[in-house]
Design brief:
The longest helix has 27 residues. The protein is an alpha/beta fold. The chain contains 12 helices and 8 strands.
Length: 357
């Protein structure tokens, strides 16, 4: 059976052969930034809703035993990933922590391939070898989620150094959780980035809990953006539940990095509506705490209500998009279910970078 996802895979393969793997494939979200106010805001809504619905499907699949290992959901934080990617150019680079599903979707990765990767299938973004915490897409300059807390910061910093050395008009965004800001790699990376004025944005998604430890109990400086002062770079804190606010602050930092102004440390104040992972009993907060935030600060509802009040789109538009997203998730799950597991010889593939003439 040929699915819509199969056609997307074929199209991406053809694009890679025609253009070379170094040419980035843009996402619908990036394309929408060049269109009308209505189209742009509808695509933002569509992206955030797709993140939410696909995450709900992954939670279901995890309970069914289709996904193994750890699973860290992005539910509640959709405005950050969507706002970040909408403020970037297609050839900009993204390196993330292990709560990476939302960024993969915002970058335009196919949801069927995302689920297939979590299922350990050969059609997954990483050939079924990486799973939930190691999504990556070279064609989209999405260099992956990393399971080691803070381990990706030096990699992102080195990538920014390479970009500056080659004189490219690109920047790097390195996303981390608040728990990453207390380790040596954080300080070493910020020091080097500031010393060499690298084109990089360090973005902290501060969801108030480093796993299950409240912010005030794991860091001596709870206003994390102030840590930038020690390295002579701009630091900025903003509301990560409001897509428009996220876009504005990231776009400003991106312009600064792209024009030689050096790195920034951004702190997006956000909140996850689910536990740290699917294995988290959440003893550190109550259900009423979560529901209080969810009822007043759901980023998807904030965006939808604002655009409806502005007359940009209607409730009928949101209903149509919701129906489309629901069908997309059904198709993606079917694709993941029907995809084959990797053959044994795949174990030896992708060990080394292959040189092509």
């Amino acid at each position: 059976m040929t699915t819509e996802t199969d056609l997307k895979l074929a199209a991406e393969s053809q694009a890679t052969k025609a253009n070379g793997a170094s040419v980035p494939i843009t996402s619908p979200l990036a394309e929408a930034q060049k269109k009308s106010d209505r189209e742009r805001n509808l695509e933002i809504y569509r992206t955030m809703l797709l993140i939410r619905r696909l995450e709900e499907k992954t939670a279901e699949a995890y309970t069914q035993g289709k996904i193994g290992g750890f699973l860290h959901l992005y539910i509640g934080q959709e405005a950050v990933a969507t706002g970040v990617i909408s403020a970037l150019e297609p050839d900009d680079h993204l390196v993330t922590h292990y709560r990476d599903h939302g960024y993969a979707i915002a970058k335009g990765c196919d949801p069927g391939r995302i689920l297939a990767e979590m299922y350990g299938k050969s059609t997954g973004l990483s050939g079924g070898k990486g799973g939930s915490m190691h999504l990556a897409d070279v064609k989209r300059h999405f260099w992956g989620g990393y399971a080691i807390v803070g381990g990706h910061l030096p990699l992102a910093t080195g990538l920014a150094q390479s970009i500056k050395y080659q004189g490219k008009d690109e920047i790097v965004v390195c996303v981390m959780g608040d728990g990453s800001t207390n380790i040596g790699m954080f300080h070493e990376s910020l020091n080097m980035a500031s010393l060499y004025q690298l084109p990089i944005i360090y973005l902290v998604e501060n969801n108030l809990f480093s796993m299950g430890t409240p912010l005030k109990e794991h860091t001596s400086l709870p206003e994390i953006h102030q840590k930038a002062r020690g390295y002579g770079m701009p630091g900025d804190r903003f509301d990560g539940m409001d897509i428009d606010v996220v876009y504005e602050h990231v776009a400003t930092a991106a312009q600064r990095a792209r024009t030689g102004g050096g790195p920034s440390l951004l702190e997006a104040m956000t909140y996850r509506f689910r536990g740290h992972s699917m294995a988290d009993p959440q003893f550190y907060r109550t259900k009423s705490d979560v529901e209080e935030v969810r009822s007043h600060r759901d980023p998807i509802q904030i965006h939808a209500q604002r655009q409806i009040e502005r007359g940009v789109f209607s409730e009928a538009d949101t209903k149509q998009i919701a129906d489309e997203i629901d069908q997309m998730v059904i198709d993606s799950a079917r694709f993941a279910d029907e995809s084959p597991f990797p053959e044994p010889e795949a174990l030896w593939a992708d060990v080394y970078v292959q040189e092509h003439s």
